[in-house]
Amino acid sequence: MTRIHTLLLPTAIGLALAQAVAAQESAAPGGITSPVGQAPVEAPPQQPEVQAIADIGGVLTPRGRLVIEPSLQYSHAGVNRLTFRGIEILSTLLIGVFSAEEAERDIWTAALTGRLGITDRLEMELKVPYVYRDDTIRATVPVAGDSSFDIDRDLSGNGLGDIELTARYQLNRGHNGWPFFVGNLRYKTTTGDGPFDIARDSDGIEQELATGSGFHAIEPSITALLPSDPAVFFANVGYLYNMSDDVNQQITEDLWIGKVDPGDAVRLSFGMAYAINPRASFTLGFKNDFIDKTKTTYFQDDRTATQSSRTLNVGSLLLGWSYQLNQDVSVNLGLELGVTDDAPNTVLTLRIPFGTNAF
Question: Mind listing the domains of the chain with CATH numbers?
Answer without folding.
Answer: 17-32+43-357 (2.40.160.40)
